[in-house]
Sequence to fold (364 residues):
Amino acid sequence: MTAALAQDSPRPLADPHRIAFCITDLDIGGAEQCLTNVVCHLDRRVWSPHVYCLSRRGALVDRLEQAGIPCTCLNWRGWPDAWRVLSLARKLRQLRPKLLQTFLFHANIAGRIAGTLAGVPIIVSGIRVANLPPGAVTVIPNGVDVARFADAWPIRNSELAAPPETRWMISVGRLHPQKGHRLLIEAVAPLLLKHPNWRLMIVGDGPLRGELDRQIGELGCRERIVLLGFRHDVPQLLKTSSLFVLPSLWEGQPNAISEAMAAGLPVIASDVEGVRRLDSAALTGNPPEVVGPGGVLEGVTGLIVPPNDVRALRGAIASLLDAPDTLDELAPKTHLLCRYLLTIEGMAGQYADLYASLLQAGPC
Fold:
């Protein structure tokens, strides 16, 4: 099982394997946090990682450096030209890693070219959103720091300018058309009239903020739907809430859903790639995704709905608001499932196992 991968301690090596990671940027985002979590949780007795970031210094560089991991930011702007790729190739040739792992589109392309020019024997690319046959890829789900979200303290309703009896729905994600916030606001507005003790908080920032604010005003929901912007206290906000909703139009594997599950929230999400299923196969060691097809996974995780379908989204939310006992019963089961299947340690263990198997097999 996933959790067991981190339990076996590999034998320390006299000369740990040098491996390189290349990513487009290290600002806070799903793929960026995934890379950071993987690198920080690799066994340093076995692996000696070095991270190359194509763009400027981002918010996650501090965490890497605090963990003692060298990180080189190349300050590229836009699509790199040939000399920048050659510059990365020179750095890789100096490091002489046994394996290069790339993340995100630009790094996948530039890193593979530079790695090939530098003679890196094994290059692995991480694809976040793709429709590929199962045999063509190795699927490793993102892990989440379960304790960080499970142990957070809720925020008092008074600090959110809400009545004491308020129950919260929450959606976390950048304010971009991909995340479906316009659909969510349209779906939930009439439900808030029927359930006056419920409110919706939307956490995140982005280009749609002005448009979403106007939509909320036009629906007369300014006191019931709150745009909180970017927040550093997401674990606390999740623990304050009772239901997580993410009606995305497309996804990789959204970290926000895993974090909500770690906090013990039932989830309503779109039936899109990366969110599509968590069935009995996941419980026998196959790569899990997050919520169950067509409904609750035996009353455990939540509901999925067709993407871009306001009526279906409204119906799914209403079904849980109308059954608060069911909503409360799902919470501890959701947390346990996340703790069982989606830990950072388990994710890092799967990456380490993949790297070890590739090194043992040698270059193709």
